[in-house]
Amino acid sequence: MPSDTEFTRLQGKLRSLVEWDVLQFFHHNPHTVEGAQTVANTLGRDTDTVNTALNAMKGVGLLQAVEAQTQPMYRLTQDDTLREEIEQFMRACDNPAFRRQVIERIVTRGTQR
């Protein structure tokens, strides 16, 4: 199983399963620039919930906002170091035991708020 370092690097930045889904979306589409509605439709999630996640992730540097006329648009961070951390985390998530551990931590942290 991968070490905890992959999760620790993103700890405090990735706070919910919705944010994890959004991060996966942008990780798998690293050059895309999308708004909340498109991301929500792609993920099969509620737009308001995704919008909250997008704003939170922008606040911690995982995503960047892009100027748009009608709605905020988002893209994956352009910070190379953070992109590498995201890549390592996503690779580690290929391991079912690691993925389960991450889910447990996110869910536990969410119930402690």
Question: Quick gist of this model?
Answer:
The chain is mainly α.
Rg, rounded, reads: 14 Å
Strand content: 5-15%
Would you count the extended β strands for me?
Answer: 2
Low-confidence stretches: none
pLDDT averaged over residues: 88
Shape from CA axes?
Answer: globular
Helix content: 55-70%
Q: Which homologous superfamily in CATH is the superfamily?
A: Winged helix-like DNA-binding domain superfamily/Winged helix DNA-binding domain
- For this structure, what is the CATH class? Mainly Alpha
What order do the strands of the largest sheet run in, or round the barrel if closed?
1-2
Q: What do we call the CATH topology?
A: Arc Repressor Mutant, subunit A
Structure notes:
This protein is mostly helical. It has one domain (about 5-105): Orthogonal Bundle (Arc Repressor Mutant, subunit A), CATH 1.10.10.10. It has helices at about 5-10, 15-30, 35-45, 45-60, 80-90, 95-110, and strands spanning about 65, 75. It has a two-stranded antiparallel sheet with strand order 1-2. Helix 3 (about 35-45) crosses helix 4. The relative contact order is 0.20.
